[in-house]
Structures are given as C-alpha cells and as structure tokens.
Design a protein that fits this description.
5 helices, DksA_RNA_pol-bd, 142 residues, single chain, binds zinc ion, zinc, DksA_N, mainly alpha, Four Helix Bundle (Hemerythrin (Met), subunit A), 0% strand, metal-binding, 2 domains, Znf_DskA_TraR_CS
Length: 142
C-alpha cells in the first residue's frame, strides 16, 4: 500500500493558520481533494490496464512465451488487486470524513497528525499503533 501517486504530489501540503483547530473544515477539504485525485488516478490506471490485458491475449505457440505471458498477467492482476484495495480504502476514508472520524486513530483515538496524513491520507492508525501492528505482523510471519 505504499504506492506514490502522481496526483498526490501536485497538491501542495496544507499550511494550517495560527491557532487553527485540528481537522478544521479547510483541512478536511484539503484531504478530500487529495483523496479524490488519487481515486481518479487509480481508476484511470485500472482502465488502462484492462485495455492492455485485452490486447495482450495473444496465443503464443512457444510454451516459453506462454509462460512469460502468464506471469506478466499474474503481475498485472496483483497490481490491479492492490489498486482496488486502495480505492476501497479511499472510499472508507471518505465515509470517515463525512462522519467526523477522519484524522483520529482507530485504535486509541489520538490525533494522527497533519504530517502523517499528508504522507498517507488514508492512514487510519497513529504512528504508535501502526508501529505496534507492524511488529506484531512480523512476529506472526516468523
Ligand atoms: Zn493509536
């Protein structure tokens, strides 16, 4: 889920005014814009890939060609799967913006922070909970 999207870079980071409250309407609008741009970019990417896949279904006579085509396809499918998951995550994040939960950690409720959200607008955990999660995941993988 660490995809860097072009659209994201084109939106300048939010500069809060002095004394501005966390997750003010302006801040929410800013993150909504980033998320909308990311979502549009992902949809374009999926559309493009679908065309490539449709054009790429040549039947090769050589089994080696066939094998490499199949692994290309598998890679494409994995990428698509990742993009779809990210779109789902973005949609969930829109719901959070609407319900007023955006910007707060799902586990402990602390502010996730503008800096972290700027880098990962779909972040749903604070850095502490995220780090703990990752440690746990590593231990499970052992
Ligand atoms: Zn937390």
């Amino acid at each position: 889920m660490n995809m860097q999207l072009e659209s994201h870079k084109s939106i300048a980071p939010y500069e809060p005014k002095k004394g501005e409250e966390y997750m003010s309407p302006e801040q929410l609008l800013h993150f909504r814009k980033i998320l909308e741009a990311q979502r549009a970019e992902l949809c374009r990417e999926i559309d493009r890939a679908v065309h490539v896949m449709q054009e790429g279904t040549t039947i090769f006579a050589d089994p080696n060609d066939r094998a490499s085509q199949e692994s290309d396809m598998a890679l494409e499918l994995r990428n698509r799967d990742r993009e779809r998951k990210l779109i789902k995550k973005i949609d969930e994040t829109f719901h959070k913006i609407d319900s007023g939960d955006y910007g707060y950690c799902e586990k402990c409720g602390v502010e996730i922070g503008l800096k972290r959200l700027e880098a990962r607008p779909t972040a749903s955990l604070c850095i502490d909970c995220k780090t703990l999660d990752e440690i746990r995941e590593k231990q499970m993988a052992k």
